[in-house]
Structure formats: structure tokens, C-alpha cells
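Summary: Need help interpreting a holo structure output

Steps to reproduce:
1. Submit the protein chain below together with the SMILES for NAP.
2. Request a joint structure prediction with the ligand placed.
3. Inspect the C-alpha cell block that comes back.

Expected: a single structure record containing both the chain and the bound molecule.
Actual: see attached output.

Input attached:
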Amino acid sequence: MRSKIASDRVSRNPNESTDNSVLIVGGYGQVGQVITRGLSKSLPIELIVAGRSLRRATNFSNQFDRNVVPVRLDLDNLSNVDELLKNVQLVIMCTDQTNLDLVARCMNLGIHYVDITASIGFIRTVEALNADARRSGAVAVLSVGLSPGLTNLLAKRCKSRVPDLKFVDIFLVLGLGDVHGDSAIDWMLENLNSRYSVMEKGKPKSVGSFLEYKKTTFPGENKEQRAYRFNFSDQHVVARTLQVSSVSTWLSFTSPVAGWFIYLLRKTGVSRLFDWPLIRQLSLKALKALRFGSRRFSVKAEAGVDRKKGCEFECSVSGSGEARVTGLIAVKVAEQLLSSSLPPGVFHIEELFDLNQFVDELEEYQIRETTVLKQRSV
Ligand SMILES: NC(=O)c1ccc[n+]([C@@H]2O[C@H](COP(=O)([O-])OP(=O)(O)OC[C@H]3O[C@@H](n4cnc5c(N)ncnc54)[C@H](OP(=O)(O)O)[C@@H]3O)[C@@H](O)[C@H]2O)c1
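--- attached output ---
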């Protein structure tokens, strides 16, 4: 495998530098493809597309007339990784992982790192590498994508508009007609039965995915719809980075009956079946095959000072294609990492960027802001 990697890394274009490569793990997945395509247009350096299937990586990289190098890499067996990392300047992670090994190596070797995961458990383990990153000069940007990602930036926008902000509710509606990758669907199924803590009035409150709902009106809709608690990492992260005492994230689907059905499965305990690997595997296949309805997504943050008095400011982004918008945000972050001097350390997107820095990437999407005018009692 090592010789395969070495021989593959001969640049096909003499104008492209192979001294500094970008390694995109999962670069031929749904989100990874958007990232690889985006960076192939903007960065004149070698891109390495990695995953467990050399065949899929090769088929994908053959679509480019520039230097995109396919590599086999299994995050659960990192035997070939040291040679692979030799000239790598940035690693972009487009799948969930449990093994911290690759990130730890990057933080020790001064290799920049971008991750799109929504798994708060893994995010916390990466945060603990902050001192290593600062020592080596590496910059890691976490919470990159839609949720987490744009949702963190929307919460930051709320904070800038409501200075004495006390609560933020983050809403996400996903299209069941959208193309979601295996990793993304598996992550959702894995988190369906999760219990976790959210911050409510500055104190941790134990909650469960799909055990509670909140109603909201999504952009472009004229009636309220239920959105259900879900364990996205953004709610945990912004409570700390933006110092907000109450934050929760709520998930819905463009077909409300789907959310209601999952709520029912969860309330009756039938959803426990998804914890069985075989049932989860079959459900994943069924969900991939049963695509129907809209490809649209929306993310929205509602914020205010007192929940009883309601929302004072809300902002949202909507459009089509969850994987596409996730990839576009990651491309912008990667470009910034390689072109500007960001401070070393482990950060979340909202600690380094503002929503308005992504306006060009979001030109095909709708961005809305509404200030709810209220008379405050003195
Ligand atoms: N932040 C956000 O808003 C956001 C939005 C969408 C998705 N996501 C997250 O992004 C991730 C990717 O989603 P996706 O829809 O692109 O999924 P996907 O199409 O399944 O892509 C995952 C990629 O990772 C590779 N991969 C999986 N396990 C691997 C391993 N052990 N070692 C090396 N490569 C591995 C896969 O290839 P092989 O299977 O061939 O190895 C594939 O190329 C998911 O974790 C999802 O939760 C985040």
C-alpha cells in the first residue's frame, strides 16, 4: 500500500505543488465530493482523496483533469498514515470517527485540521488537543457545515443583535428527498435513542432525542410545524463559546409525518430496535431507497431574553442540498486556513468566523433576518 501511495503522488500537472497537499478523508462521499470539487477549482495544490475503497477513490479522482490522488485509508487501521501525512498541510475529515489517533498526529505535527462531525463526544476529545495544536502551530476548526456550522454562526448573529441574550433555539428542517450519505444517515440512527444534557437557565438539564418537541414556522412556510429535540453538537458548543444560558437544537423534516412517526417510535420504546446493528443496517438501506419529497433544508435560530416573552430576533438560511451547503462552508474554511494567518489552537467555526464572511458561498441560498419588535416593560 505504501508504494501505491508513493507512486500515486506524482503530480500530473507541473503547475501544481505536491509539497503541500490537502488530504480529504471521505473525499468521495456526499459531502467530500463537494469539498474536493470546490478545492480543485480554488487551490493549485495536490488534493488527496481517501477512504476505505481505493476503487471508489480512483473512480472519483479520474473525473478531474488535475491532480487529485486516490488513496486507501481506514481510520480504524492507520498503518500507512505517517507516510501519507508527510507533505500534508491540511486534513479535512468528512466522516465520523471514534479513533483520535489521526487528529492527535495532525495536532502534534502542525498539520491544520477541519472536521464536519456533529458528534459532541468526539468534538470534546479534539478540544482537549488545544495545547498540542498551540505548541505545533496547527489550527483545527470544528463545527463546520450546516448543523453544526451555519447554525453556530446564526446563533452568533443572534448574540450580536440581542446583547443581553439568554436563550437560543436552533431549528433544522431536512428534506427527505435530499441525498444523504451512509455516514450521515447512520449518525442520525445512532443518535435516535440518545440521552444528553442541554443548558437551561445556566444549568444542565437531562433530555432525550425525539422525546420533546417545539413548534416553529420555518422560512417560506405559513404554518407552524413540530421540531423534535436532537443531539446535534451546536447546542452544546454555543452555550459555552457564546456564553448563552439556554440553548437547544430541534430537528424536523419537510414531511412532518416522518417526525411524528419517529416521535411515536421513541415514545413507545420501539426505536430501541435501531440499536441492533442488523436492524440499523436494514433501516439505513431502506431510508436511502425511500427518498421522497423535497430536497430543501432550512436552519433557523430564534433568540431572546425571556422565553415567556418570546423570540426577539431570528435569522435563517434555506435552500436545497444539505451535503452541498456543508461542503461549500468547509471549502471556504479550508481556503481561509491556508491563505490567512489564523491563531494556532482548536476552535469552533464561530470563534474564527462570522456569517457575513460566507455570503459569497451562500449566494444560491436565502438568508433572512427578522427583529420582533416588542415593548419591553420598564
Ligand atoms: N456539519 C454538518 O452540517 C453535516 C452535514 C452533513 C453530514 N455531516 C457529517 O458528515 C459526515 C459525512 O456525511 P456524508 O453524507 O458525506 O456521508 P458519506 O457519503 O457516507 O461519506 C462518508 C465518507 O467517509 C468514508 N469513510 C467512512 N468510514 C471511513 C473510515 N473508517 N475510514 C476512512 N474513510 C471512511 C466513506 O468511504 P468508505 O465507506 O468507502 O470508506 C465516504 O467516502 C457524516 O459524519 C455526517 O454526520 C455533517
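--- end attachment ---

Reviewer comment: The chain has two domains: 2-145+326-353, 146-321+359-371. The radius of gyration is 21 Å.
Status: needs-info
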